[in-house]
Structure formats: C-alpha cells, structure tokens
Amino acid sequence: MGSATEFNRRDVFKRAAAVTVLAAGGSSFLAACAAGGGSSDGKTSAPGSTGNAANPFGVKPNDPLDVVIFNGGYGDGYAKAFEAMYKQKYSGANISHLATQDISPKLQPRFNAGNPPDVIDDSGAQQLKIDVLEKAGQLTDLSVLLDAPYLDDPTKKIRDVLLPGTIEQGTIDGKMYSLNYVYTVYGLWYSNKLFTDKGWAPPKTWDDFIALCATIKSSGIAPFAHQGKYPYYANYVILDLIAKQGGTDLVTRIDALDPTAFDDPAVLAGVSAFFKIMQGDYLLPGTNGMTHTESQTAWCQGKAAFIPSGSWLENEMIKVTPADFDMAFLPIPSLAGDKLPQTAVRAGAGEPFVVPTKAKNQAGGLEFLRIMLTKEGSGKFAAAANSLSVLKDGIGPDVVLKPGTKSSSVAVTAAGSNTFNYSYPDLQTAFDTELQNATNELVNSRITPQEWVARAKAATSKKV
C-alpha cells in the first residue's frame, strides 16, 4: 500500500522480507556480490566530477537509462515525470521504465549477473537490503552527488539544499549510499471539515486534547482510532510524547538501548498521558483489532476524530476519503514542562533511491537523482504522490497540494530545526518488537503505564 523505510509499518514487511531473501537464495546473491563487487578493493566507486555544472558526472547524451521504481502507495507517475525531465535534457536517451512491487525477485538475478539497473527505488516488502548491497560493494558512493551543483542554483551544492537528517538516513560507515527522497512527517490526523462543522479547535496541549476527547465522545463520535494490529502506530504517539517531554538527548539514549533512559521521568509521563485515552474510554470500538486500512477507513467515514500516522496517509487512503474531508495534520500536543516546543514534529527521510556500482549508465543514474532534487521535480512528486520530498523549500507556489500534504508541509516549516526521529525501529528490531508488544497490552488495558516502562527497560537487553 505504500512506500518503505520510513519508520512505520512498511519496515515490518521489509524486515520480514529480508529474512526471506537471505533464507531463500540470499547466499547465492551474497556470493555473486562478493565475486563481482564495485572495485578491486571491495569499495564502491562513482564517476568523478567533470567540473561542468551542467553535466558534472559526464553523462553521454545517447546512453540508455534503466529505471526501476517500487510501485507502492506513491505510485510511479512521479517517476515518469522525472524521466520526461531527463529526456528533455538528454533527448537521445532511450529510457526503460519498470514499476513493480517485486523488487527483490526482479532485481536479485540482475545483480547476480552483473547487470543491475541504473537507478532503483529500492523499497517495499521485497526490498533488497541496502546494508547487504553496500557490504558487497554493489552501491555507488553518493558523495559525488552531494558535492554536485544544485541545478536550480549552481552556486549551491546538493548537500546544501537537503532537509535535516536526509544525508544521515542514507549513510553507512560515513558515506551516503542511498538518497532517501520522501520526507515523512508523523503525528495525529483529523478532518478539518468535521472540526469546523462541530466547532472544535485542534488542541495544542495534551490536557486540551483529553478534554476535547470527552466533548467528541459526547457527540457520538469515537475520539481516537489506531491501527491495532500494528502497534507501532500507537507508538508514534507514545514515543513522540516522550521525545517532546525529554528532549532529543533522550531520543538518542532510547535509540542506543540505554536502559537508564527509561528511568527518565519523561518516559512515564509520556506513557501515562497516552493511557488517559484508554482510561476515558475514548477508543473507537474494535480498533485494537483492526488493520491499518480498516481503522483508517473507519476514520475517513467519520467514525473517529483522530488517528496517528505518517504523511503517506493521504495518498494511501485517497480512494476512500470523501472529497470534502479536508484532511489535516496535527503535531502531538504538548505536556507541561516539555523540552521541545509544541510545534516540534517527528520527521525524517525515507524511500531510498540507489545507483548500483555496476550500472551501465552510472553517470545517468546520478544525474537522474540530481534532476529529482529540483523545485520542478519536487513539485511534480508532491502533486503526483501527495507527499513531500527532502528538498528544502521544495514546494513552489505554483504547486497545488492536497489538504493533508499542504498541512504537513506547513507543520514542517513551523517546526524549523525542532524535528526529531527515532532509529530503533530500523536498527533495533528485537527491541522494537518488544515495545510493540507492550503497547498492545497497554491499549487493551492489560498493563499499566508503569508496567509498560518496566517492559521497555527490560527490552533494551534484546539487541540485534
């Protein structure tokens, strides 16, 4: 249903797929990679800069370009727009376009044969694991891209126009190997039409949120729905409450699986605040057992007022969202004494694009990424996929955004430098699973906030 590598449900499918890939044929893939890496020392290589701002990688105008796109929630219309932009610049290039959800089954044999595509949106349930590809010397070091001139203003480098965290998200051992292109924002979502009709004001504090929940319930609508079969959605709320209360240093300690992090009073404060939803009986009946689409559909139907999610939500539910729904984003409301401001949001880069070392048109693959990182490219992506790119100020006034995307864009601007993100869902999967299990017990009121904290602290010993 969507893209991957954002810290959300897509990662669950990715991790399951990774196990499958390594168990079924992964050894032959690794062997082939080891035998056919990027260079004699096992390190990846990339074209050097030509010193020509218009063509820094030395693209040959008539060389064909082979593009593979994960065909998930973002679709592939945006990629076709990028290809048209590439074709305008290199009219003699024949562009091959494959949109598929079967990334690993389609591409593993090509990597084995030393014939990978030139650029890949490596995402989805059957993503090829980027760390595996990098260790085998199969991915181009994108440092040359970061140091290339920005097409819209050649006085700037690409690295200067990326949103915070983009480079870090694609970095392994000090080098960037993937361009995570989609900038995802996490928080609560609501229908602005519903709130306007009812005269409800979006809350800025958690106390106001809980008070509003009581008002919403009295109107006959459930205040809160969540994707119960996937508890990490509820963890967006819990961990964001914790982050805002305790600050970014606490986020870092949690990601590092520091058991003493869970002794910080901010942790219990965040979990206890979230638990007030259950104490007030504010959950949509049955939401604890629903899938993401089931709960989100009920929310779109007006059966619940709030739902947690990332900014892929609007595009994911576009077919069932009423035309006048007016989807809107809300940063997690503040607790008293928060170290981060109310406008702070969890946000980060996802949806990795890579250029294989053995791509026939490696220079063209790099140039394709550079074209993506233009105002025109970012605007076309936003219009087609209803999501933001990692380009700073990447949405021009001429781009017409859907309400939810516009709302999340406004939130990112308001947050400024006050953004944060967690890496544990991607890098500490055993811990993440235990945290989800604890949250499942919490939303069913089978454990207390204090017991949730104890379980989370104990889970720090489960390192991968």
TrEMBL record:
Keyword set, alphabetical order: Signal, Transport
Question: Which InterPro entries does the entry mention?
Answer: Bact_solute-bd_prot1, Chitin_NgcE, SBP, TAT_signal
Does the UniProt entry include the keyword Signal?
yes
> How far does the signal peptide extend, from start to end residue?
1-34
Annotated Pfam families: SBP_bac_1
Q: What domain of life is recorded for the organism?
A: Bacteria
Protein's UniProt keywords contain DNA repair: no
Note the SUPFAM superfamilies from the entry: Periplasmic binding protein-like II
Q: Where in the cell is it found?
A: Cell envelope
What's any one GO cellular component for it?
Answer: cell envelope
Name the principal localization, coarsely classed.
other
Family classification: Belongs to the bacterial solute-binding protein 1 family.
Name the PANTHER family for this protein: ARABINOSE-BINDING PROTEIN-RELATED, SN-GLYCEROL-3-PHOSPHATE-BINDING PERIPLASMIC PROTEIN UGPB
Protein name as catalogued:
N-acetylglucosamine transport system substrate-binding protein
